[in-house]
Design a protein that fits this description.
By secondary structure, the chain is of the alpha/beta class. 46% of the residues lie in helices and 13% in strands. It has one domain: NAD(P)-binding Rossmann-like Domain (Rossmann fold, 3-Layer(aba) Sandwich), CATH 3.40.50. The protein has helices at 23-34, 46-57, 73-87, 110-131, 161-181, 200-205, 209-217, 227-237, 262-283, and strands at 14-18, 38-43, 63-67, 92-95, 143-148, 186-193, 249-252. The protein has a seven-stranded parallel sheet with strand order 3-2-1-4-5-6-7, sandwiched between helices.
């Protein structure tokens, strides 16, 4: 399929993706690699890092990875420093690590709430704060920082108070950094993926093929999105075509946000009921 941008535009540029070893974030890495970018990433599981790096290298680019928990600033800083030593200054910095589970506020412990806040919000701060000194700000279009957000950052959902609070914080953090870092030739934006096929999130929220089909058909664009479509949005926001864009939240969601909580809330409720039934069966 032809691509809007020159396939060599990112040749030799360095893209760092926190959480880039699985799912949407790994898809973003492959999207940039196909455009010639060298990829670095970090994740908590060493086996995921090794597999992801092998995959990126198969695209014909250099790639490096480190084991790091985004909740730990020192681990993130070390992963970034190691990546820069191997691949040079960072042109595109993406924070994508996230955590989620379906639970009502009254069924959630304070520690569970804190865990999601630490991964999503504190993790994004850690990646951007530790990464800033390594950004390549010499490009006319500036260095690009992108946080992977979620509809929960913009719409309240039941069973998602932890994620909604964390992602809303990510949205505001990105806007604040866009204001502070704009004069330093750094652009900061967020991308809001909708339901994306072949991801852990959709597997958790779609417990059977019928519900999976219903969720897709409930969107104005009546299908799930693809990882490549999220990668394309990141590529656009990191290109000269977006040189005058900062502080935005870009939905890539097939119109999911237009529908309000609606169908996604139904999926969340169904997933919660399924988890309760599975728990009851396991305990019986």
């Amino acid at each position: 399929m032809p691509h809007l941008f020159d396939p060599d535009y990112f040749r030799g540029k360095h893209v760092f993706i926190a959480g880039g070893t699985t799912g949407i974030n790994q898809g973003i890495g492959h999207g940039f690699a196909r455009m010639g970018a060298n990829i670095s990433t970090c994740s908590r599981k060493a086996e995921n890092v090794e597999a992801a790096i092998a995959g990126f290298k198969s695209e014909g680019v250099d790639a490096i990875g480190a084991t790091a928990d985004v909740r730990d600033y020192e681990q993130v800083a070390y992963a970034l420093k190691t990546a820069v030593q191997s691949l040079g200054p960072i042109d595109v910095l993406i924070s994508g690590a996230a955590g989620n589970f379906v639970v009502p506020a009254l069924g959630m412990s304070a520690n569970a709430f804190k865990t999601v806040m630490d991964i999503d919000l504190q993790g994004t701060f850690n990646v951007f704060r530790a990464g800033h000194e390594h950004l390549n700000t010499d490009s006319p279009s500036g260095a690009s920082c992108i946080a992977i957000s979620a509809p929960q950052g913009l719409i309240p959902y039941g069973l998602q108070s932890h994620v909604c609070a964390a992602k809303a914080g990510v949205e505001m953090l990105a806007q604040c950094l866009a204001v502070e870092w704009g004069p330093l030739n750094v652009r900061v934006n967020t991308i809001v993926p909708g339901p994306i096929a072949d991801t852990e999130g959709m597997r958790r929220l779609s417990t059977d093929e019928v519900r999976k089909k219903d969720a897709g058909m409930g969107l104005p664009i009546q299908r799930y999105g693809t990882k490549q479509e999220i990668a394309d949005a990141c590529i656009f926001l990191s290109s000269p075509a977006a040189a005058y864009i900062t502080g935005i939240s870009l939905p890539v969601d097939g119109g999911c946000l237009l529908m309000g909580a609606g169908r996604m809330q139904e999926s969340l409720n169904a997933a919660f009921e399924a988890s309760k039934q599975a728990s009851n069966q396991a305990g019986s």
